[in-house]
Each structure stands twice: as structure tokens, then as C-alpha cells.
């Protein structure tokens, strides 16, 4: 907007063009339940900083008491961020479901063990672990109440899950849409 104004474009024309822009897929993608006042956000937040930023934004919008977060951590990546991500999710969410992301060559249970270490330090009681990401998302849909928001963090735009060198079709957004449709 600022650049367009500096170039002399009219405010109305700028706003018209800006309103037609499509956001990046997997970045704060909002999904609404077809009948109920329930929402989900799919976001690529896969680092502690990114997860904290998206959760702070959600807390500003609706408060911690309304956020249920599904989060995992990738295998064969920085292990030190795993407990940090779990702690951030627990601090900024009413409930947390720790789940598999892209385990790659690692055992997903061991990845969740690493994440859980941070929660043990907090004595957090607002979490469960469900390794199967599809089941974790479906569980979140069953737990959510009217006015709540589910954050499914970590995979965003990715349409696959990488397990033991193979990429399997997997889309957080599609699973949410299906689960919402079944919850009518």
C-alpha cells in the first residue's frame, strides 16, 4: 500500500487490488465449520518463534481459553526445538495435542518423547499425545467447542507426510474439512 501510494496510485484503486490478493497457502489458512461456530487455522509454523507468533496472534484475537493446538516436530531436524515448541503450545493454548509431523527416518514416538520433556518441566497437564496426525486432527475437532479455534501447526502448505524415506499423501486442510463435514 505504502509503495503504491508513493508511486501516486489512488487509495481506492490500491485497496481494490489489495482485496483481490490471495494469501500464501498454509499461512494462517482459516477453515470454518460448515454449521457450527468453530474454526481451524492451518499454519506452517514449524519453529518455536513461528509457533509463538501465530499463537500470540490467536490469543490476541480470542484468548488462550479458546485455542486448541495440534503440533509436532520434524524428524532428522534440530532436536533442541522440540521441547521448546511443546512448551510454547502449552503456554498459549487451552489444550495441546502432540502429534507426528514429518518423522522422516526417526521413530515418531521418540520425537514426541523429546517434545514431552519440555512439558514435564512445566508440569503441564493440558496435553495429550496422539502419534497418528490424522487421528490427532479428528480428535481436536471432537474436543473443540463453539467459538474455539483449532491451530494445526507445522505442515501448512505441505501435501505429504514423509515417513521412512517415502512421501505419503497428507493434507492437514483436507483432513480438517472432512472432519468438520462429519461433525454436523
Verbal overview:
The model has no long low-confidence stretch (mean pLDDT 95). The protein is globular, with a radius of gyration of 18 Å. The chain has a 6-stranded mixed sheet with strand order 1-2-6-3-4-5, sandwiched between helices. The chain has a two-stranded antiparallel ribbon with strand order 7-8. It has helices at residues 2-6, 11-19, 48-62, 81-92, 108-122, 133-143, 172-182, and strands at residues 29-32, 39-43, 67-71, 95-98, 127-129, 149-153, 160-163, 166-169. It is an alpha/beta fold. The protein is built from 7 helices and 8 strands; from the N terminus they run H-H-E-E-H-E-H-E-H-E-H-E-E-E-H. Helix content is 42%, strand content 18%. A hairpin with a 6-residue loop joins strand 1 and strand 2.
What's the β-strand tally?
A: 8
Strand content: 15-25%
Q: Which percent range fits the helix content?
A: 40-55%
Instruction: Label the structural class.
Output: alpha/beta
- List the strand order in the largest sheet: 1-2-6-3-4-5
Q: Which geometry do the CA atoms define? A: globular
Rg, nearest Å = 18 Å
Mean pLDDT across all residues, rounded? 95
Sheet with the most strands?
6 strands, mixed
Specify the number of helices: 7
Separation of the first and last Cα atoms: 41 Å
H/E series, N to C? HHEEHEHEHEHEEEH
Low-confidence stretches: none
Amino acid at each position: 500500500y505504502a509503495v503504491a501510494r508513493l508511486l501516486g496510485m489512488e487509495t481506492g484503486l490500491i485497496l481494490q487490488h489489495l482485496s483481490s490478493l490471495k494469501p500464501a497457502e498454509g499461512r494462517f489458512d482459516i477453515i470454518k465449520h460448515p454449521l457450527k461456530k468453530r474454526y481451524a487455522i492451518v499454519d506452517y509454523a514449524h519453529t518455536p518463534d513461528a509457533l509463538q507468533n501465530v499463537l500470540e496472534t490467536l490469543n490476541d484475537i480470542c484468548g488462550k481459553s479458546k485455542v486448541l493446538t495440534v503440533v509436532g516436530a520434524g524428524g532428522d531436524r534440530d532436536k533442541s526445538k522440540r521441547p521448546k515448541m511443546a512448551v510454547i503450545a502449552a503456554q498459549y493454548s487451552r489444550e495441546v495435542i502432540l502429534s507426528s509431523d514429518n518423522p522422516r527416518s526417526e521413530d515418531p514416538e521418540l520425537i514426541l518423547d523429546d517434545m514431552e520433556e519440555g512439558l514435564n518441566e512445566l508440569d503441564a497437564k493440558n496435553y495429550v499425545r496422539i502419534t497418528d496426525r490424522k487421528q490427532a486432527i479428528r480428535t481436536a475437532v471432537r474436543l473443540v467447542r463453539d467459538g474455539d479455534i483449532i491451530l494445526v501447526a507445522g505442515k501448512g502448505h505441505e501435501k505429504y507426510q514423509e515417513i521412512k524415506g517415502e512421501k505419503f499423501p497428507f493434507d492437514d486442510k483436507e483432513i480438517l474439512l472432512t472432519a468438520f463435514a462429519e461433525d454436523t
